[in-house]
Amino acid sequence: MKILERIKKRLTLFSHSGSTYHCPFCGYNSKDLEVVGHNLPVLIEKHVIGGGRRAAGCYKCNSRDRERLLYAFIIKELNLPKEITVLHIAPEPKLSKILLDHNLKEYICGDLFTESYHYPEHVKNINVLDIPYENEYFDMVICNHVLEHIPDDTKAMKEISRVLKRGGQAILQVPISKNSIQTHEDFTISDPQKRKELFGQFDHVRIYGQDYVTRLENVGFVVERVNISNKYKKFGVNPEEDIFFCKKENLN
């Protein structure tokens, strides 16, 4: 069976090879991207960016558009200095490996469900609502598509801000509705199927609207909304996905 799977994989890579896209994680060059995600009515109705059915997957390593976007921004655009401390919540495996190899001063990875997701040993059990580090410890926090799972997202935002140094930066990505001003949430709904129908995934508790920036600003972040998709079309990133680049003000 494994031999047949390997043959099938090779045929897939051969048939989709090309020069339109380049995966920065595995180096595969393709003429198109694999279609991934779910075509749920709510995601179509609310035009949710960062979710839904879309051409976004690498045929070779299965990386997704939103992970490649973070790679482009963090590795290519920010050109991270090595003498910084970084907290990476729910770390994406491919991006995390690159950051580990970057030899940062300190690179902490954490998630609440480390056993369930079979993370490697370096990923600690960390609750974003109660991060076990002192005030102003980290230079940067990466939190990609996590806040939509958390009922008290304001508390999570405040906790991220607490552990950030003055002048520190956070990348806080979420699936966001392009055509809704207000965030849609209802904490009385706990049924997984109902959540899937209303929020696009069984374990999501909201679909963020364009007021997401205001939510971040209300906890004290200065938010820069950045779109680098034109510069990294070859990575197959979503042209509509902005990066929510947040800064903790240096009041000194």
Automatic annotation (TrEMBL):
<protein>
    <submittedName>
        <fullName>Methyltransferase domain-containing protein</fullName>
    </submittedName>
</protein>
<dbReference type="GO" id="GO:0008168">
    <property type="term" value="F:methyltransferase activity"/>
</dbReference>
<keyword id="KW-0489">Methyltransferase</keyword>
<dbReference type="InterPro" id="IPR013216">
    <property type="entry name" value="Methyltransf_11"/>
</dbReference>
<keyword id="KW-0808">Transferase</keyword>
<dbReference type="Pfam" id="PF08241">
    <property type="entry name" value="Methyltransf_11"/>
</dbReference>
<dbReference type="InterPro" id="IPR029063">
    <property type="entry name" value="SAM-dependent_MTases_sf"/>
</dbReference>
<feature type="domain" description="Methyltransferase type 11">
    <location>
        <begin position="124"/>
        <end position="171"/>
    </location>
</feature>
<dbReference type="GO" id="GO:0032259">
    <property type="term" value="P:methylation"/>
</dbReference>
